[in-house]
């Protein structure tokens, strides 16, 4: 597949790239005539491909050569033109054929791109940067004729590449000049070692990936791979495009955050912002404050008196019944007028406000609990190899036979991550006929995960006897996760879910 080509916005939801084990594949009949039948792919899977820097460089070179042959331009100039057009070669060729001079000028090439720049010694020349006018000094200028000494030009390029991280669109150092320094000129001025130390080629490759909508770098630390996926930004309200890099990192292609299935990116952004703003104080607010019946400002009671005055709108009310204080007569510290209308309306509004807060806390606490449990399970995972070694020596099992512990640990991590995000999904979910099915799937997965987590914490001498049960529970957890994700993704893709916020 030519991953550098622009793609149609349609997505093949029957991708085969997810690394989950499919425990639900239908048995193929013995009399089938089709030897190449593939298992049904899940609704939550998307097609993607992982590419190394060498793959990406090879694709760049191929596109530059193809377009160079069509336009009749040198390879270096063609590369600048393609970067100018964000590697959309069809659009570049069309615009070039219609308005060649304008395209060359906007790309930073000028008119005469066939004459390559070269080093020259010019008698009587003085560099405008360092004011050096030594005899025999080598100078360099592109076709814009902004000439400087080689040492100043080299220092300028090193600063741009090494300090500023620029490589694709380095402009001539001449004031106000739009001319782009091509790769052949950079190679002429900088040694190979200096280019490598400045990461020049690496920066060019990074620019290529950044310019392509269907390519993204894996966000894992020190990972050099890029992932190619056809999911477009406009589809992120109905697809959660989880991809799996060859380095082992699973992330969302849409937002590059850690895998957050089944919650789509727009809801993830809302949820994380809400958690950041609300969660640290929500419990305290719920327990210690009330809202002003008039302006809804949050008020803390800081004394014994029930006569409250809102500092914002100056409304006077009773802390106990939330009614207007003027209706209380002289009952300054004891409220016995529960049935008054103003108090009833205020309490009703207060109850609705608190119910909204309590609803948020319900989902947030469960979200945070799975996040914390995942961290604890990860600590267990880090000790897994030691447990496997101990089990191997104490029970006489082979290293292959004790791999069930590693499989269980990985399943726990994956299921915890999914469960965590099901609560963010459920918070924004409007109730309909499908909600109960979702909550049942969520409950089944949660119970299975807790059972597996409990077994995993048994002592080493008990683990050997639990091997079969633990393997069965690992399989069951993975199956329940797949069922939940598949059902949720299918309904999301078909627009069956209704949310209480706009997915934008």
Total of domains? 3
The Cα radius of gyration reads 32 Å
- Work out the strand percent: 5-15%
Tell me the series of helices and strands, N- to C-terminal.
EHHHHEEEHHHHEEEEHEEEEHHHHHH
First-to-last CA distance: 32 Å
CATH topology of the largest domain: Four Helix Bundle (Hemerythrin (Met), subunit A)
Mean pLDDT across all residues, rounded? 81
Return residue spans where pLDDT drops below 50 for at least 5 consecutive residues: 1-35
CATH top level class name of the largest domain: Mainly Alpha
Topology:
Blueprint (H helix, E strand, L loop, with lengths): L47 E4 L1 H19 L3 H10 L4 H10 L1 H8 L11 E3 L16 E3 L7 E2 H14 L19 H7 L2 H6 L2 H12 L3 E3 L8 E4 L12 E3 L5 E3 L12 H24 E3 L6 E3 L6 E3 L6 E3 L22 H42 L1 H12 L7 H26 L6 H22 L3 H4 L3 H27 L11
Antiparallel strand pairs: 1-6, 2-3, 3-4, 5-6, 7-8, 9-10, 11-12
Helix pairs in contact: 1-2, 1-3, 1-8, 2-4, 3-4, 9-10, 10-12, 11-12, 12-13, 12-15, 13-15
Provide a short characterization of the protein structure.
By secondary structure, the protein is mainly alpha-helical.
